[in-house]
Amino acid sequence: MPRTFLCAALLACALPATAETWQFTYTGFHDSVTGTFAADRQLVGSFTGADVDRDGTIARSEITSLILQGYDYVGCETDSNEYWHCGAEAFSYGPGGALSFSAGQYGSDPEGWVGGGHYFISGDGEYSYNFRPEYWDEWSYRWTEETRFAISPAPEPATWAMLGAGLALVMLARRRQAVQQLLSHPQLLAPPSGD
Question: What is the pTM of this model?
C-alpha cells in the first residue's frame, strides 16, 4: 500500500499544473463622490490560472481569465483596437499571499471628442471617467486600511470528478486487499464453532 501512495505522489508531481479558479471579494471603500467610507461597497472578482513554472506565484502570463465586477479583462484583450483598449496589464498571486492586479478599459471616438474608461488597481482604487464636449465626469472607490479581503478556490466540476475517481480507486484497492486477505486465510471464512 505505501508503494501505491508513493507512485500516486510521484505521478502528481510529474503532471503539469492544472488551472484553478479563485474567487475573491474586497469590501469597504472610500467613495470619492460622497467623501465617505462605503462599508458595504464590494469589488467581486475571480481568476483562473495555474503556477505553470512552479515558482510559488501565479503571474499574468499564467492566467486565462480575470473577472472584475462581472467583466473578463483577459477575455476582452483580443477585441482591443485603435480606439478602444481592454486588458489586464499586471497580475500576480501567491496562494496564501497578496493579490495584485491592474486591469481596465478605455477608448474614444476617432476625433477624441467622446470617450471614457474604467479601471482597477488593487490596493489603490477603482476608477471611472467619461467625457464629451463641455462635460467631464469621474468617480472612484479607493482602498483604505478598513478594506477587507477574502479569497478562496472555487472547486471545478473536473476537480470533483477527479476526487471521486481517486476515492473510488482507493476503496477498490482496500476491498481487493481485504478479499486477498480472506482468500489467503480461509479460517476467517469458517463459521464460529458453537462451544
Answer: 0.71
